[in-house]
Inverse folding.
């Protein structure tokens, strides 16, 4: 297994503003060993942490990332929307996030979020930053729903750990995974059937499910063979980071998924 059993979603999205350095620190403080973060590009191709292509939901700013540049970051508050505790928290550069994760000894699942027509551009920006700022390829997974972006990244890095993201596992997922030499499959925790889980694991891939904030659901997923879950609230999930045998001995029987 490449990543850990519990991965902080967008840092620790229920406990600190998502995709911020504060969120990364919060995930580490909760005892996590891995986080998931989202990469988007500004209009000047600066790679930053952002799930959305608009500023409105998670900052005091409005409008599209595509219309902004590096100089605009100085006036963007990415923390106050969540809590005044994080007033004036900045929208991070990818380079700063990479450095902080390594300082805190965190593994990283970096999800590429390209705009339409920018798959190759986003992959190239990610590769450039990772080549400079990331030093342990074994603690990094590059994932995306945009499989063109993943193919572009694979062309740049033959050794990268690449994860295919799906809402629902499609019939042709085996061919897609083989074509980019994926190491892991990432799926919606509410969409995976027991047969899906068995299929992925029998095919030799790591399987990570998003976004699970219910310990009982996590129990069921782990019992059926899921390797790890993404969660917004690592505080209530950290017990699952025990070795499998120790944790499983403490759990009551679980019901299988449909």
């Amino acid at each position: 297994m490449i990543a850990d059993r519990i991965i902080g979603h967008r840092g620790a999205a229920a406990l600190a503003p998502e995709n911020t350095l504060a969120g990364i620190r919060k995930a580490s403080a909760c005892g996590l060993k891995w986080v998931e973060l989202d990469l988007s590009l500004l209009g000047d191709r600066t790679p930053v942490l952002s799930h959305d292509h608009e500023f409105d939901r998670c900052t005091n700013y409005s409008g599209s990332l595509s219309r902004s540049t590096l100089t605009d970051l100085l006036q963007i508050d990415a923390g106050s929307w969540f809590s005044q505790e994080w007033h004036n928290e900045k929208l991070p550069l990818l380079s700063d996030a990479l450095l902080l994760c390594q300082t805190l000894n965190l593994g990283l699942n970096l999800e590429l979020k390209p705009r339409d027509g920018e798959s190759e551009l986003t992959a190239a920006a990610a590769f450039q930053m990772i080549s400079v700022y990331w030093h342990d390829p074994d603690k990094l997974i590059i994932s995306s729903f945009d499989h063109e972006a993943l193919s572009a990244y694979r062309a740049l890095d033959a050794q990268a750990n690449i994860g295919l993201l799906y809402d629902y596992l499609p019939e042709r997922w085996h061919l897609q995974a083989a074509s980019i030499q994926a190491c892991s499959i990432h799926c919606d925790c509410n969409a995976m059937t027991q047969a899906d889980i068995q299929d992925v694991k029998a095919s030799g891939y790591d399987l990570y499910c998003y976004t699970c904030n219910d310990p009982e659901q996590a129990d069921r997923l782990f019992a059926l063979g899921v390797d790890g879950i993404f969660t917004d609230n690592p505080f209530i999930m950290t017990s699952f980071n025990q070795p499998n045998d120790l944790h499983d001995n403490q759990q009551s029987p679980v019901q299988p998924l449909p």
